[in-house]
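Hypothesis: this fold can be encoded by more than one sequence.
Test: take the structure tokens below, design a sequence, compare later.
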């Protein structure tokens, strides 16, 4: 009887939004669907995506706004209400045609499918789709990977809501592996953290594939002049043992040099939204982690610049790279006091030009694998030998820094203790999906509490 009285399902068209860029024609590929035809999908889910291209109208002398990201600029389509997704027959041609950004025009209002709902459509004039854009800057143009949404080897990944008239706030994440995984989310496309933000926001991620973004290396990259960058390049070319180098050594050289010559906090970028093109400058918030602050870094003997690499990367370097580091750099051992100084200098430098909020994640200070029964047998300061002691000392340092410089603390230590390290952080570094979700919620809560634009109220999806 209930089935007979039930209202027929409502079908709502899934339409492309009003992307437009003055001086350019917006083009796209076919739709690559992430759901099957007539599959039930949830709010906040990316149901499909396409590649985006900007074709200049006439001859333009202006630099392309996405010149370093043009092959990895994509649009994701995010549902605002649950329902069954019906693909339009013309939405996809399959094969490589669904990967080419110039295959067809982006037509505002164009229908790519329908959403079938068992309940009436909401009255608040809410469209069924939100448009999210993502962009990746390839480490090299030869790192071609069109397998999915934001796939490939990039030295910068970012995502933003396009269905508004501009970006309100930007979060820059200088990642460690734990933070990067949490910010990118389950599907590695930023959709979860973007969906938790109420306003029109952008999230940018700088990976630590070679150079780790500790406070010292970030500060030096901000301060470095073009002349100093050229000196680093010339010195590397003159001192690296290229004759005995393998392809892996050459690759290490190139990636390290590119990272040293870039400045994540000083790089402007463009976003494309329904309001057109917008140039985005300094980030409104910067997210970092103390796991990116190892006790050992390397300082160049002649030029004085710092490199910081993860220990596992150092162990895996080939002999030419090892030889270069041993001959050209000196080892610098840092404790909490030196790292505190680096953060204070970095925050002071950035805040001379902007009111950027800094959020720093602390360390997990307990271990399920620690079996030390007698600490008196350890010579010297315990923090130099025992990881959990160093983590506690670093967390205390961060509390002092928070009081001195108004840094917000992402209390990873407390989250792990509450959820349980054995299940959610078994190796002391890499979080479970449950822990990552808690990290995202806390990041959004901190940004909202600090008044970062776009993050200041509850999200719709």
């Amino acid at each position: 009887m209930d089935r007979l009285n039930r209202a027929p399902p409502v079908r709502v068209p899934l339409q492309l939004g009003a992307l437009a860029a003055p001086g350019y024609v917006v083009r796209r590929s076919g739709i690559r669907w992430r759901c099957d035809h007539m599959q039930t999908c949830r709010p906040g889910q990316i149901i499909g995506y396409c590649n985006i291209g900007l074709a200049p109208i006439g001859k333009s002398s202006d630099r392309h706004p996405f010149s370093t990201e043009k092959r990895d600029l994509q649009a994701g389509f995010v549902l605002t209400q649950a329902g069954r997704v019906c693909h339009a027959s013309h939405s996809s041609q399959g094969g490589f045609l669904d990967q080419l950004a110039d295959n067809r025009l982006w037509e505002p209002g164009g229908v790519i499918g329908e959403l079938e709902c068992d309940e009436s459509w909401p009255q608040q004039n809410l469209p069924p789709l939100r448009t999210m854009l993502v962009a990746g800057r390839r480490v090299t143009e030869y790192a071609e990977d069109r397998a999915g949404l934001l796939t490939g080897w990039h030295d910068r990944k970012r995502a933003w809501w396009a269905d508004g008239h501009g970006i309100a706030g930007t979060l820059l994440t200088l990642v460690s592996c734990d933070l990067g995984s949490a910010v990118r989310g389950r599907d590695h496309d930023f959709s979860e953290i973007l969906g938790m933000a109420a306003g029109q926001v952008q999230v940018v991620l700088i990976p630590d594939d070679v150079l780790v973004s500790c406070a010292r290396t970030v500060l030096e990259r901000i301060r470095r002049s073009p002349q100093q960058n050229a000196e680093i390049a010339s010195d590397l070319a003159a001192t690296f043992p290229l004759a005995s180098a393998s392809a892996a050594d050459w690759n290490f050289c190139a990636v390290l040099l590119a990272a040293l010559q870039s400045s994540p906090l000083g790089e402007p970028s463009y976003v494309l939204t329904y309001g057109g093109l917008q140039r985005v400058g300094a980030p409104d918030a910067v997210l970092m982690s103390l796991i990116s602050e190892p006790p050992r870094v390397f300082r160049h003997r002649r030029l004085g610049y710092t490199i910081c690499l993860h220990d596992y990367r150092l162990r895996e370097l080939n002999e030419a790279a090892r030889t270069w580091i041993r001959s050209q750099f000196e080892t610098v051992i840092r404790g909490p006091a030196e790292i505190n100084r680096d953060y204070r200098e970095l925050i002071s430098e950035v805040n001379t030009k902007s009111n950027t909020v800094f959020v720093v994640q602390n360390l997990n200070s307990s271990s399920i694998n620690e079996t030390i029964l007698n600490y008196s047998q350890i010579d010297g300061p315990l923090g130099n030998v025992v990881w959990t002691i160093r983590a506690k000392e670093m967390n205390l340092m961060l509390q002092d820094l928070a009081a001195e410089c108004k840094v917000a603390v992402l209390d990873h230590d407390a989250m792990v203790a509450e959820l349980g390290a054995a299940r959610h952080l078994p190796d002391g570094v890499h979080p479970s999906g449950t822990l990552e979700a808690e990290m995202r919620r806390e990041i959004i809560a901190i940004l909202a509490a600090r008044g970062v634009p776009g993050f200041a109220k509850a999200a719709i999806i």
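The chain has 13 helices and 21 strands. The mean pLDDT is 91.
Hypothesis status: open.
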